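Worked problem 6 (solution included).
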Amino acid sequence: MHDFPDYWRFNLGIYVDMLIDWLKANYGAFFDVINNSILWFMVYSEKFLQWLPWWLVVAVVFVLGWRLKNLLSGLVFALLIFIVGTFGLWELMMSTLAIVLTSVVISLLIGIPIGILMTYSSHLDTAIKPILDGMQTMPSFVYLIPAVIFFDLGKVPAVFATTIYAVPPVIRLTNLGIRQVPKEMVEAAESFGSSRWQLLTKVQLPQALPTIMAGINQTTMMALAMVVIASMIGAKGLGMEVLIAINRLDIARGFESGLSIVFLAIIIDRISQGIANRFEIPE
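Solution. The predicted structure is:
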């Protein structure tokens, strides 16, 4: 009497499984193209980051922190990234950066256009917002399942899962930023004969840029937060070190790799915030 009746049970997972099998059978070539494209970009990004001399990276971090924040911030950021090198995790940090960079680039290529389209279509806005809600509340481990099914194990499924997890903020804030552009400014541009493209590129996007940059900051941080989980499907980097430390109960290894991720997150967050602040329009 207190148990839920079995005859009302609906096995939705079976139909999802059938959909994925159908996609793999009919669009396998499409997923191969995506796999090869992501792998190409990521491999060359990682090679470039690994090729950079350590002292040059430290210097660039210092200059960015100094110019975007202040001199003290530049010195602190340079010290933090130098400490990661003293842990012997420099190459793994570059691998992690390559995953984050690739995921953020893909997220921006997908998210900003969708955010713009949502601005111009109330029906699309209504349809996509619940999907974004689901993407942000879904446990991040769930994203590993379709990633592995479509792309097996390795770097590409890690990027795929990270992108799905990280893309909602930039979509939301692109849409929000454009909608917050003052109507008077839009009407003035239209009265001067601006086309829809000119209105978007010369008025709405420049005005919405601070909000969009905040979305990029959030997307970048969410991508970095996914690196440990992505290591479960073969993504090398600092996340893999954390996973190995958990499996071996190696406190020292886990502390160093976890602290390195924290340092990297602090540097990326503060620098991206500094870039976003540069685009703020003075009142």
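Discussion: The two ends are 65 Å apart (CA to CA).
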